[in-house]
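Why Ribosomal RNA small subunit methyltransferase E? Reviewers of the renewal asked for a concrete example.
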Amino acid sequence: MHRFFVSRDNIKGREAFIDKEEAHHIQKVLRLKEGDRITLFDGQGWEYYAFLQGVRDKKLVAWIEEAQKVDNEPPFRVNLVQGIPKGDKMELIIQKAVELGVYSIYPVLTERTVVTLKGEKETRKVERWRQIALEACKQCRRNIIPEIKPVISLRDMLELIAGKPALMFYENEQYNGIKKVLQENRDKIKEEVFLLVGPEGGFAPGEADLAREKGIILCRLGPRILRTETASLAGISIILYELGDLG
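Here is what the prediction returned.
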C-alpha cells in the first residue's frame, strides 16, 4: 500500500487533508483514484489507514478508517554531527542515516569544510535536506521524522554537547577503537549518544584537542581510512548493533 505524509494539523476528526506536493504525487504520478486505499503517517509516531474521498475546496481528502501508534524507533537516540562534505554527499548521508534509525542530524562547519553556506543558500539547503529525511521515512516506514538541525559551527556544537555521551572519529587516535569505547561506556549511553564525523580530510588536530577538552571520546573506526559518507553510516550501524537495536 502506498504511504504518504500528512501533518497532524491537517487531520480533522476522521478526515485527512493532504498537502499539495503529496496530492500531486497521488493524483498525477501514481494516478490513484477515489476509493483507493493508502497509508498515512504524521511524523509523530502514528499511522493512519485510509481511503481517498476526493477533492474538496481544492484539497485532496482521505477518510481515516483506523489509526495506530507504531513504534519502530531505536531504544536510544543516535545524533549524527556531520561535517558538511562537498557535492551531494550530505544528501546520501541523510537518506541512509534516516533509514538506519538516526534521531537527529547536525550539519557542522569545520576547519576543513570547503562548502560555503550563508543566508538564502543555507536556508534552501537545509529545507532540501529535511525533504530528503521525510522521503526516507516514507520509504523505510519510520513514523518519527528525524530533525535536520540548522547549520552550526563545530566550536558551538562542542559547547552544546559538552559533558554528554559523544564519540568523535579521529584517524590519528591510536588506542580507542569504536567497539572498545562502546563496550566500556555502555552504561553511560542509556538515552542518547552523539557521533561526530568530519568532512573530507577529517577533523583538524586542534578540533580533536578541543573535543577532548569537552569530554568527547576520540576513537578510530578501523585500520583503513574511509570516506566521510562511509564512516558516518558505518559508525551509526556499529552503534545500533553494539547497543542492541540492529541485528
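The longest strand covers residues 46-56. This is the kind of structural detail the renewal will allow us to pursue systematically.
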